[in-house]
Automatic annotation (TrEMBL):
GO molecular function ontology, one term from the record: magnesium ion binding
SUPFAM superfamilies attached to this UniProt entry: Thiamin diphosphate-binding fold (THDP-binding), TK C-terminal domain-like
Pfam families in the record: Transket_pyr (PF02779)
Protein name listed in UniProt: Transketolase
Domain Transketolase-like pyrimidine-binding as annotated: residue spans: 2-171
PANTHER family xrefs: PYRUVATE DEHYDROGENASE E1 COMPONENT (PTHR43825), TRANSKETOLASE-LIKE PYRIMIDINE-BINDING DOMAIN-CONTAINING PROTEIN (PTHR43825:SF1)
Recorded superkingdom: Bacteria
Coiled-coil spans in chain: none
Length: 310
């Protein structure tokens, strides 16, 4: 199966062909994959070089002229390094852009901690008005990218973050860029799997009497879906996110503010893992493999003390 990032260049190239408002800005990373699109649209495919602050600034400038910019690089260079520009050039100026990341939390372990960004969604949570998509399959990535850019629809020029990953579920689901999906229904708790965590969550909860929700759009948070699920099951909620553990616990608590409930946030731990290893080894070290998830989810739902990875 190809990766989400493999789908990015062909998908955005088609959007460049469809809509003269669409522009793409990169900072060297991923530029070669857009050579064909650059040849057709030299004024709308821009490589600023290894200048991440300029990357965001150029995208914001294009947005202020009425363009719909798609800005792409690794997550650590797209959200963390130029965060001041994200905050001011886009947020303060109310300029809409689509930020599309790669490498996710630890997709390229050999790159070291400079190329990891498990805190990207939590960081964007400090700003107002962002939509955040976390696809779990390459097909979903294409769907959500198109939903974010919306070629031909200038009324939808908001601030959107699309988080691509090499981790993926085996099967795509019909995502709509808004709602959580009910994948399995049960009575003894709710487990919310975000993006590429779904396969591991389904394996971890096999045989357990729990509802499994699937989220690929996490901001805005679909409070109605979580409330509905909690009303039809014990209001014990486990969030399994592919980024910093606990990123969405506040959103879940707000959704259930008037309902007695408990929330457990599972995800990437704060402790830095200083050995490169493999993606699979990082998943296991953070307790996000199916076996570890089953132990931690089961202990929480049983009211016991949950082991904390890392």
């Amino acid at each position: 199966m190809d990766t989400m990032r493999d789908r990015f260049a062909p998908a955005v190239s088609r959007m460049l062909d469809e809509d003269p408002r669409v522009a793409v800005v990169v900072a060297e990373i991923g530029a070669a994959a857009l050579d064909g699109a650059r040849a057709r649209h030299p004024d709308r495919v821009i490589n600023v070089g290894i200048r991440e602050q300029l990357l965001i600034g150029a995208g914001a400038g294009l947005a202020l002229t009425g363009m719909r910019p798609v800005v792409h690089t690794f997550a650590s260079f797209l959200v963390e390094r130029p965060f001041e520009q994200v905050k001011l050039d886009l947020g303060h100026q109310d300029a809409g852009a689509v930020l599309v990341s790669a490498a996710a939390s630890f997709d390229w372990p050999a790159g070291g901690f400079t190329h990891m960004a498990p805190g990207d969604v939590a960081l964007l949570d400090t700003l107002d008005g962002w939509t955040v998509h976390v696809p779990g399959h390459p097909d979903e990535a294409e769907t959500l990218l198109r939903h974010a850019v919306r070629p031909g629809d200038p009324s939808a020029d908001g601030k959107v973050y699309v988080r691509l990953s090499v981790q993926a579920n085996s099967t795509a689901l019909p995502v709509d860029g808004e709602r959580f999906l009910v994948v399995r229904e049960g009575r003894c708790g709710v487990v919310l799997a975000v993006g590429p965590m779904l396969d591991a969550v389904l394996a971890a909860t096999e045989g357990l009497d729990v509802t499994v929700l699937y989220a690929t759009t996490v901001r805005p948070f679909d409070a109605a879906a979580l409330r509905w699920s909690a009303e039809h099951a014990t209001a014990d909620v486990v969030l399994v996110e592919p980024y910093l553990a606990g990123t969405s616990t506040a959103a879940a608590n707000d959704a259930l503010a008037d309902v007695p409930h408990r929330v457990l946030g599972l995800g990437v731990g704060r402790r830095e893992l200083r050995r490169y290893g493999t993606v699979e080894e990082h998943v296991a070290a953070h307790g996000l493999d199916a076996g570890s998830l089953r132990e931690r989810i089961g202990a929480f739902l049983a009211g016991g003390r949950v082991p904390v990875a890392g």
